[in-house]
Design brief:
This protein is of the alpha+beta class. The chain is built from 4 helices and 7 strands. It has a single domain, classed as Aminopeptidase (3-Layer(aba) Sandwich). A 7-stranded mixed beta sheet has the order 1-2-3-4-5-7-6, with helices on both faces. Helix 3 links the parallel strand 4 and strand 5.
Length: about 140
């Protein structure tokens, strides 16, 4: 079984790899409109990138300065192998290092249980984003 690593990515240098994973997962697989996926915030975010032992990009996620986690995507062949957990833990570590009080994300409903395992709690009502049902989830970091 192939292994993977997770590291902090640089948008300028790693954009092709980061974009590839998000294009496959969000735009092709989930049919998210291109104009919604590319929101103009990437250059100001902290990104994490998972790469296979062969060097291929297999997962990504980002952290905004306000503690919002988003754009978490793992290629289908790599799901269920701990990539998503590793990405999330790395972002939470960075959020704590930056002194953020909480992490917030808008989870796709089918992924809410995944985030709950890390202590995230649902807040508010279900809402639609890009045609996909979501729920806001919050984790206190203190």
């Amino acid at each position: 079984m192939q292994t993977f690593t997770v590291h902090i990515a640089n948008w300028h240098d790693d954009a092709p790899s980061l974009r590839l994973v998000r294009e496959v997962v969000f735009i092709r697989e989930q049919q998210v409109p291109v104009e919604l996926e590319w929101d103009g915030l990437d250059a100001t975010c902290l990104h994490v990138l998972a790469r296979s032992s062969a060097g291929d990009a297999v997962g990504t996620a980002r952290l905004l300065a306000d503690g919002h986690i988003g754009r978490m995507a793992v290629l289908e062949d790599w799901r269920g192998r701990g990539v998503g957990s590793a990405l999330l833990l790395r972002l939470l570590e960075e959020a704590r290092r930056r002194g953020l009080q909480q992490a917030v994300l808008n989870a796709q409903i089918e992924a809410a249980g995944f985030y709950a395992k890390f202590g995230f709690r649902a807040e508010g009502e279900t809402f639609m984003d890009a045609g996909i049902p979501h729920i806001k989830m919050v984790l206190l970091l203190h």
